[in-house]
Fold these 4 entries.
Entry 1:
Amino acid sequence: MRDLSEILLMDFIMTPQDRLGNIDFNAYYYWTNNGFVARETVKGSELGDGEVPEDAVLILRAELNDNDTGGRYEYDNLTMLAGVLEQLRHFDPKTYRLLMKLNADLQSEGPIHAWMSNSLGLRTSKVQQIVDNTALAAGILQSTCETGALRFDLDPKQFFANGYASEDVQPCTFN
């Protein structure tokens, strides 16, 4: 769920056209060991082999591995058009805080904005599209947070360690 919500956020900001059917992943076994979450890549490992216990869980972790991830104003923003962010009800608290910090930097033309504008070879219109999409995404998620509909409960390590992930309480706005 955390990976999916982060992909949806990135797609909203970057406007790719080919996400459906184009999600790369790495496969891992996850289990708890003395109260800590452990993982091992599936490559070269099998259940019950070495450190991987028989009851380990196979998880496919999403990976952005795309050389045409959007940032093009010519593309329709399918994630935006479908209203996907408005429907999110679970989100990672750290990702939320980072989005708010990113938005603040981009709106104030801070160091991240300067790096993106000067180092990536993007046209001014493409940079502005990313800035605008980030502001819109932050506004949508902040509004959902303020209504109490957004829960910050996507912590996979806590889920594996405890069998559940408790909700993190945090402010909807950051200065």
Note: The radius of gyration is 18 Å.
Entry 2:
Amino acid sequence: MKLNTFFMGLLAAVALVVACNKDATSKQLEKAQNDARQAADDMKDYTYSQKDAFVKKMQGQLDALKTNLDDLSAKIETSSDKVKTEAKPKLEALRAQQQQLSVQLDKVKGATESTWESVKSGFKSAYESSREGFNKARQWVSDKVAP
């Protein structure tokens, strides 16, 4: 249920990496990681009867994620050519993970009561993979772009 909190915290942390000093950023990153862990745990609490609410919440998160990735991309575009060159494959990987989450969400939309737990588990797996990718990207941005 707190996937929204995770994505917003995660993306806010990435934005803060560019705008804040490293001490403040590390605190934001730690909070985002804790929020992400909580969101992953809360995902399992949705039942089949709550499928529509789950789908709506996750779709909103994916939309916010796309917007925030676009913002991050724009910030990186203002960086040096070296940073842009290094960032391009990382951003492409994040977008691929975002697309994987979208595919998994489509499977959730089509889930039946008998497939609910399996489909939800597939979404959770894709989510956790994305979380790992975002954590790596945040660290990279912190190392390369932050002042």
Note: Residues 3-144 form a domain with the Four Helix Bundle (Hemerythrin (Met), subunit A) fold (CATH 1.20.120).
Entry 3:
Amino acid sequence: MSNILKSTKLDIALVKPYFKTICFTLLLPIVFAAINRSLLTGVSFAMCFIAMTTGYTFSITEKNSMDRLFGILPVRKSELVIGRYVFVLAMGLLSLIISLIVQPLVLKVLGETVGVFDIVTAAIAGVFLFALYTVFQIPGYYKYGSIKGRVFMYIPVAGFLITLLLITKIPDGESKLLFTVINSPVLLMLLAVIFVIVMYVVSILVSIKILKNKEM
């Protein structure tokens, strides 16, 4: 556990010069939510943007030829991988919390009603979409690197556009009907969390296998 946390701290140090840029990316979804008057689309946009920053650590490592440094560190490759996932998840969770606090406030100032249902729906969608983006991105970066694997950066963009299209096609009444069928927002959230955990476990195992087969 200690080595995993050290690996996470190392990633934080690598990305620290870009924190201002990352924070700026959270402002654009607020504007997007205000224009569309929708917390769901605003949070989805925010998680899309943050997922795109996943490649920062890979890009910095590759540009500065830090693979050899990682290779001589007294840390197992599995710990390096898990540490990076912890860093990515921490970034996603922090972004989600900020979005769920700031965006509803902005919408309320604009006269929109933001209820518990809206916040729960946006939270579930944000968690699921961020997971869906990153579970494919990270193994892709490990496999092909930040340059060749740049195509994986566009997974969040494609995912967000598809999500936005689906959201605009589903009437508000039908989205609430989904919760009625499931019978409980808590149950829906629980199912989403379980599914997300399974996706990350598989993604981590794949990333570990890829890194172990690479020369460092």
Note: The two ends are 22 Å apart (CA to CA).
Entry 4:
Amino acid sequence: MTQATADGTASIKQAFAQFPSGVAAFSAMVGFAPEVLVASSFTVGVSLEPPLVMFAVQNSSTTWPKLRRAPRLGVSVLAEGQEAVCLQLSSRKGGRFAGVATSTSDGGAVTIDGAVLALECEIVSETPAGDHAIVVLEVKATEINDDARPLIYHGASFRRLTEAA
């Protein structure tokens, strides 16, 4: 077993990477162009009434200041087989949506086609939390893809779910 203390960024990142999570893309039309950020800190079931979800975004993000201006955000929980899409959407280079199939709601929320779950949300609150902000979103619409399985991020790698023996 590796021992880690919370006083070093590399060791705490390694420790946090041991928690498996899904990967979500947060996207919307801003002006006339789609914007996106990808996070593995997405949490559902914050509240059922009203339906709330949340995620954490780095304070250094250059995309979040653009996205927070959108009236509605699309949240796409990425599916197995969308590893390349995830890497492309999270790239710091331009053309992040090139060749990526998306849908856009009347409210400007952009979702990634083929995702396990697509939500259309409105921002409820944003709370400072260290070097991140915690963003709470109210779910306005859902679309579930029963034919897909979630993409899992664990140990700094993409993983797949397997059936229990």
Note: The first helix runs from residue 9 to 16.
